[in-house]
From TrEMBL:
The UniProt record lists the keyword Lyase: no
Keywords recorded for this protein, A-Z: ATP-binding, Carbohydrate metabolism, Galactose metabolism, Kinase, Nucleotide-binding, Transferase
NCBIfam families: gal_kin
Enzyme Commission no: 2.7.1.6
Protein name, entry field: Galactokinase
Native species: Nocardia tengchongensis
Keyword Magnesium: no
Ranges where the Galactokinase N-terminal domain occurs: 4-38
Span of domain GHMP kinase N-terminal: 78-163
Stated family: Belongs to the GHMP kinase family. GalK subfamily.
């Protein structure tokens, strides 16, 4: 028996770039999923989740072929997909009990699903397949999400959960897999990163996300390039006759440039206040060109900026979920209160605000510790 833990994430910048072979810059949250695993010899797979106590799953390793999964609750397709992918890659699993417990809010755009799949994947690696590499784990967990849960995501969330390190941003080129840990010590500059979970469900996320992915592929095809990563300049996008595809391409091209510029500035130890306008520009681009924002997200960003945040933007897929704001340490209470008031004035669900510092990526929890950190 053992316990493993994997984090949720916020993405500082680089949204909807991963499935276009572009750049991302996430950090791991101190919130995550704990997976307690026990090997069993009888081929039985038992899944329990504290967040879905009535949806227990009892099946067998033999039953996990990729068809006929409709009887499994949606949440369980993520861990079952991971188990199935290990099997498909030739790793024999005798049977297992998995008890799962998460502190990542579900539907908040903070990547609760990658925290789930990645905690399970490192448990299975350590128990059954020690030679499986980090790159393989990213592939396995992304496949669990794409094929078994049916969400056509890129690799941002899984890479963040598996590769992030405490105190750092992960600068990742999703095409090559090349990554770099960039120190991100906001405290040194008397700054904080405020996360605002707007509490608005991202209901359209599956259908709209798939639509954005298809639009980006169509824009790349119209430009005659493999992906929008290969259309690196705005004049290139301007050649697109369809205004919708032009806007989608413009977002991806400018967002990739923002990620690289922010990484460049932070790498040299610049005051993070200098990147703040790029964060806000990222939000504007997601709102106007990529059209994935929503009224609670825009309200939170505007209220944060008006109350003195240096920069703010939605994080994750959008359509609801969370924003992040770069805020002076001594103004967090004021900015949080301003957001709450703006939500109250519009009769939105009260938001949940919290401050984060970059946490560790996925790891085994030592038996002697009571906390995963
Ligand atoms: C979701 C997806 F899972 C990621 O792959 C990424 O595309 C993100 O939305 C948007 O940047 O979190």
């Amino acid at each position: 028996m053992g316990r493993w833990w994997a984090p949720g994430r916020v993405n500082l910048i680089g949204e909807h770039t991963d499935y276009n072979d572009g750049y991302v810059l996430p950090l791991a949250l101190p919130l995550g999923t704990t997976c307690t695993a026990r090997v069993r010899p009888d081929g039985v797979v038992r899944l329990r989740s504290r967040q879905a106590p009535r949806d227990a799953v009892d099946t067998t390793t033999a039953a996990l072929d990729s068809s006929g999964w409709s009887g499994f609750p949606v949440w369980s397709r993520y861990p079952l997909g991971v188990i199935r992918e290990f099997q498909r890659r030739g790793h024999e699993l005798p049977g297992i009990d998995l008890d799962l417990d998460s502190t990542v809010p579900i539907g908040a755009g903070l990547s609760s699903s990658a925290a789930l799949t990645c905690s399970v994947s490192i448990a299975l690696r350590d128990l059954f397949a020690p030679t499986v590499s980090a790159t393989d784990l990213i592939d396995i967990t992304r496949t669990a999400e794409n094929v078994y849960a049916g969400v056509p995501t890129g690799a941002l969330d899984q890479s963040a959960a598996l590769l992030c390190t405490a105190g750092h941003l992960l600068f990742l080129d999703t095409r090559t897999g090349a990554s770099e840990q960039i120190p991100f010590d906001l405290d040194h500059f008397a700054l904080t990163l405020l996360v605002v979970d707007t509490g608005s469900p991202h209901t359209l996320v599956d259908s709209e996300y798939a639509a954005r992915s298809a639009e980006c592929a169509a824009a790349a095809a119209a430009l005659g390039v493999p992906t929008l990563r290969d259309a690196p300049t705005l004049p290139t996008a301007a050649r697109l006759p369809d205004p919708l595809l032009r806007r989608r391409a413009r977002h991806v091209i400018t967002e990739n440039a923002r990620v690289r510029q922010i990484a460049e500035q932070l790498r040299t130890g610049a005051d993070p206040r200098t990147i703040a306008p790029l964060l806000t520009a990222g939000h504007t681009s997601l709102r106007d060109d990529f059209e994935v924002s929503a009224p609670p997200l825009d309200t939170a960003v505007t209220a944060a900026l008006t109350a003195g945040a240096h920069g703010a933007r939605l994080t994750g897929a959008g359509f609801g979920g969370s924003i992040i704001a770069l805020v002076d340490r001594d103004r967090v209470a004021e900015v949080s209160a301003a957001i709450r008031e703006a939500f109250s004035a519009k009769a939105f669900t009260p938001p949940r605000t919290f401050v984060v510092t970059p946490a560790a990526g996925a790891h085994r929890v030592r038996a002697s510790t009571t906390s995963p950190h």
